[in-house]
């Protein structure tokens, strides 16, 4: 009898979790499992603010996919997904195509630029290993160039961060640690460096605990960050940005580096493939399948799950993507065994910890507020836990964060 073919697109948190769980649940004779990913490595998206600032080398945030998959059960294809032909049950890849009986789409998200002029061209993103490496090297280039100039342009040393959501704040935490190192390395007076964070909402980290937000702002301000709150980026140019408060006339801030950390949308493959989506995210059924397509599951940043308590979507996080991966694997194993009664996904929120640099953080864990060294310790525990969930103790030993005391 022909074995069903399960194809998983994307080896991020959702896709890799589905893969490693499926390889446990299913025997070699029960199904063919194929994993497709653009790179031959997985990267910890949740550590990219460190690679981007240059406080952690990008090789530390990634590992070889083949190290965590069981190659006797999973076929790995390194290729880029171009389009999903859902009515024909096949996926078009840059290097060919692959057919499926069950499909898992876990291609993650992309930066949301809301059509703001110049952002795609001139701003840097914290999206993947390539974008992080580029941002780190660009900042180093700006520092290195500064001292070569006869007429010094101090705005070369201004770094603007757009968005004070978790990504923007975590990046600022790393940046404030990295800037003194850069100044030392490139013989630059630290007083010449400006770090400006522009946030459109009336507060930093909108929706998060106000007491913890106050702590984060005062810690980052103490380390030199200037916050422009209730101020939106309106345009990005090669020289910097234009910002405006409410209906005010936009004003220019000249900057050598602009980082856009102001939101994510689903992967563009989703819309290109004709799925009904909101900002590239598909509202999935409780069993994580796409309405009308019983053979297609969508997880992670490209999926949309409603928090029934407040009737609003859950923010896209690695925590959700991994939990979805576990449920998705159990549901596909059930379908392979001809069971039609599938499990419903229920998000088990274990809390949120936001790093403020090497040894500081804020968080709410199991309902308890934490700050400082204990929160920073917890953040590293969370980081190590995600390695453990996918690759076990071996991966934690190889890639884990142990500078926790
Ligand atoms: P990803 O983990 O992003 O994986 C997507 C995969 O698909 C990647 O391997 C990518 O290379 C691959 N891919 C993409 N397009 C294609 C294509 N066309 N063809 C083939 N392969 C493709 N969440 C938390 O819960 N806790 C945190 O502390 C946290 N910190 C964060 C810090 C930063 C700096 C950022 C940017 C995000 C953070 N998040 C955090 C959010 C979290 O990282 C995402 O929600 C999570 O990565 C989503 O998982 P995913 O599986 O959907 O996608
Ligand atoms: P976000 O959408 O959470 O925050 C983006 C911020 O940018 C918002 O505060 C928004 O008001 C602001 N913004 C939007 N347009 C703007 C403009 N024109 N000018 C200035 N500011 C503007 O995005 P994010 O921070 O990238 O987070 C993405 C997801 O990843 C979220 O779900 C988040 O929870 C998750 N994440 C979690 C952690 C963590 O748990 N430690 C860390 C990073 C990201």
UniProtKB/TrEMBL annotation:
The cofactors named for this UniProt entry are:
FAD
Give one Pfam family.
Answer: Pyr_redox_2
Residues that span the membrane, as ranges: none
Name the Gene Ontology molecular function terms of this record. Answer: NAD(P)H dehydrogenase (quinone) activity
Reply yes or no: does the keyword Oxidoreductase apply: yes
On the tree of life, the source organism's domain of life is: Bacteria
InterPro entries in the cross-refs: FAD/NAD-bd_sf, FAD/NAD-binding_dom, NADH-Q_oxidoreductase
Q: Which stretches make up the FAD/NAD(P)-binding domain?
A: 5-325
Q: Which GO terms describe its biological process?
A: aerobic electron transport chain
Q: Which UniProt keywords apply?
A: FAD, Flavoprotein, Oxidoreductase
Annotated PANTHER family:
64 KDA MITOCHONDRIAL NADH DEHYDROGENASE (EUROFUNG) (PTHR42913:SF3), APOPTOSIS-INDUCING FACTOR 1 (PTHR42913)
UniProt family annotation: Belongs to the NADH dehydrogenase family.
Return the protein name. Answer: NAD(P)/FAD-dependent oxidoreductase
Tell me which species this is from: Neobacillus rhizophilus
